[in-house]
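Re: duplicated header lines in exported structure tokens

Our pipeline writes sequence and tokens for each protein into one text file. With two proteins the header for the second block appears twice in some exports. Here is an export where it did not happen, for reference. First protein block:
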Amino acid sequence: MSHIAIVSASVGAGHDGAAAELGRRLTAAGYRVDTHDLVELLPRPFGALLSHGYQRQVQSAPWLWHATASTFDRALPAAAAARATRTGDRRILAAVRPDTVAVISTYPLASQALGRLRRSGQLAVPVITYLTDPYVHRTWIADGVDATLAVHAATAAQARRLGARTVRLVAPAVAPGFRPAAGTDEVRTARRRFRLPPTGPLALIVAGSLGLGRPERTATDVLATGLATPVVACGRYRTLHQRLTAVPGPVPLGWTDEMPTLMRAVDVVIHNAGGLTSLEALATGLPTITYRPLAGHGRANAATLERAGIIPWVRDVEQLDGALRAALGRPDRRHDTRSAPDPAATIVGLLDRRPVTRVHVPDRQRWLRPRGTGGLSARRPPTRSHQ
């Protein structure tokens, strides 16, 4: 049985969530899947900076994170970020089993590292990037990556403009549990499960697994409208949960592995990042609003989703009342991704082996199917083994 390696990063839960669902689907398709954390593959100081530095900047100095994200969204700084991942090359290559047929990235710097190794010939199997964000930051697109998967058409267009090769539009890698409630009985059962108010509209405020941003301010603003009771998913941020417990009105919830059930208990989702949570909300059929987006990638995602007509971006408290009224008046706002192919099926299709021809591309050589077949295959093994 062939292996597929997935490289994610424990920087929030969105990248890992997409990796887990892709792994589940590829396992069902008959592959053995190994998932790796880039944070652990890099030397300890760099890995710690990657995971903790992001969280500290977003929470304590959002202006600094916005400046950092904007800086590395340019060609030269993005190239510098790619070079910084060289310190993890040996561990990355050692993590790829001999019978691996592809490596998938769900994190930008993983794409940079894998693309470089692929381009240099040290990695002999196709590399595929699954974009977890609506906005395509420049570090997502790496020379040497064979194919890029995008969930939104606007995202796919951005990836192509930045030079991504073999871009495919796919359905979200969202767990099958995220679906609309079957009826009012299921909604009541879900509310009892989380000890939520049995009646009245509920607004689920989500700030990722780390509780980043200022979700308590969002809860206060929702309360002020008088339109819904704010339910705040605090993730693993215990301090946030403690603060909200002392405030009358909001309903704070700690970390839960039952997010599909929680979403079926509420009437609207308010998010601030635009990643996996927004896809889960749309799959559940919930009206979704972007409010107080995180600096950097959060605002970029918000702008992309709004321009594409997928999720509105409410920019201030004065607009929140009208946005909530509109959302609660249209209870089913699913973004139609049913016509898009399954991402695992797309990956399998790209790896389907057929006669190959050698195609020379500047600064890289790859073994590809003849034009028009749409598939990828491994290039010849490099002369220097990394085993």
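Second protein block, exported in the same file:
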Amino acid sequence: MSAILANSSASASGGMGMFGMIIWLVVIFGFMYFLMIRPQKKEQKKKDLMLSEVAVGDTVLTTSGFYGTIIDIVDDTVIVEFGNNKNCRIPMQKAAIADVEKAESAS
């Protein structure tokens, strides 16, 4: 009789241990979401907004570290002019733009 009681109480505590482990896993994944995934999504939205507002005449910093001026935009491709001699025009993807400085509007 005591063996049956010991066996049933062990299975009950084992079931509670499994429930507790599931709760801890949910808590850990919740922390991972708020500390890793959510900030990354927020940063991606910010970059997408920046790239959608790029216009001709803006000064950009490329991911390779070059500064240039946008002279044409076609879909996901931009033509960037580097330097002062006006001979260095390179087509590149919008995704290669790391930072944008808006052109001064003449008012």
